[in-house]
Automatic annotation (TrEMBL):
SUPFAM superfamilies on file: YbaB-like (SSF82607)
NCBIfam families: DNA_YbaB_EbfC
Family: Belongs to the YbaB/EbfC family.
Superkingdom in the source lineage: Bacteria
Physiological role: Binds to DNA and alters its conformation. May be involved in regulation of gene expression, nucleoid organization and DNA protection.
Taxonomic lineage of the native organism: Bacteria, Pseudomonadati, Pseudomonadota, Gammaproteobacteria, Methylococcales
Protein name, as recorded: Nucleoid-associated protein MGMO_8c00180
GO cellular component: bacterial nucleoid; cytosol
Main location: cytoplasm
Pfam families: YbaB_DNA_bd
Residue ranges that the Swiss-Prot or TrEMBL entry lists as coiled coil: 5-32
Length: 107
C-alpha cells in the first residue's frame, strides 16, 4: 500500500513545478485592453506591464478629460483580462486538488 502522505507530497511538488511553468508562460503572454469601441487600446503583458498604447487619431485634440478617461478604462480592461487569464490557468493546474476556497497562489 502506498503512503498517502508521500502521494500528497508528490502531487504538491508536481503542482509547484506546474505553477512555476505557468507563471513563466503567463509573464510572456500579452492581452489587449480597449475602450471607446477600440479607439484606445493598451497591450499589456501577463506581468501587468503596459507595452503599447494606441490612440485613434480622431481623439487627438478632442476633450482631454474624455481621452484620459478612455486610456484609464483601456488599462483597467487589460488588467482585468490578465487577471482572468491567470485565474483560468490556475484552475487548469489545480483541477482535482483539494484547495481551500479563497486560497491565493503566488501569482
Amino acid at each position: 500500500m502506498k503512503n498517502p502522505l508521500g502521494n500528497l507530497m508528490q502531487q504538491a511538488q508536481k503542482m509547484q513545478e506546474d505553477l512555476r511553468k505557468a507563471q513563466e508562460e503567463l509573464e510572456l503572454m500579452q492581452v489587449t485592453g480597449e475602450s471607446g469601441g477600440g479607439l484606445v487600446t493598451i497591450v499589456m503583458t501577463g506581468k501587468r506591464e503596459a507595452r503599447k498604447v494606441t490612440i485613434d487619431p480622431s481623439l487627438v485634440g478632442e476633450d482631454k478629460d474624455m481621452l484620459e478617461d478612455m486610456v484609464a478604462a483601456a488599462i483597467n480592461d487589460a488588467v482585468n483580462k490578465v487577471g482572468k487569464m491567470k485565474k483560468e490557468r490556475m484552475a487548469e493546474i489545480t483541477a482535482g486538488l483539494p484547495i481551500p476556497p479563497g486560497f491565493q497562489m503566488p501569482f
